Amino acid sequence: MSTVTISLRLPRSEVGRLEKLARELGTERPAFLKRALQRGAADLMFERACQAYRDGEATLTRAAEIAGLSLREMIHRMRSADLELNYGVDDLAKDLQA
User: 2-30, pLDDT tens digit by residue?
Assistant: First the structure.
């Protein structure tokens, strides 16, 4: 796997918070930042998928694809977040055609 180095500027207070959390977790800063970015990106993808689903722009299956999750994982996360699932016969038909 090829990698790319990125850099960003953060307020000192934010860097302090991140370094403190990395120490508390017993993780070195680079590994912690990589993990935090990955987790943050996954959360943002999930939010984007849920919004598309709520707005009727995506079926539940398509929302799972947007989020990078299996359909089962998507349903579980939506239920865990107390998000309403409106999945009826019409949605099933759309998913089967896709």
Answer: 999 999 999 999 999 999 999 999 999 99
**All structural domains of the chain with their residue ranges:** 12-97
**Cα angle vertex 57, ends 62, 41, to 5°?**
60
Which residues, other chains included, contact 91 with Cβ-Cβ below 8 Å and sequence gap of 6+? 59, 60
CATH of domain 12-97: 1.10.10
CB 64 within 8 A of CB 86: no
Average pLDDT of the residues in 53-78? 92
- Total-model pTM: 0.77
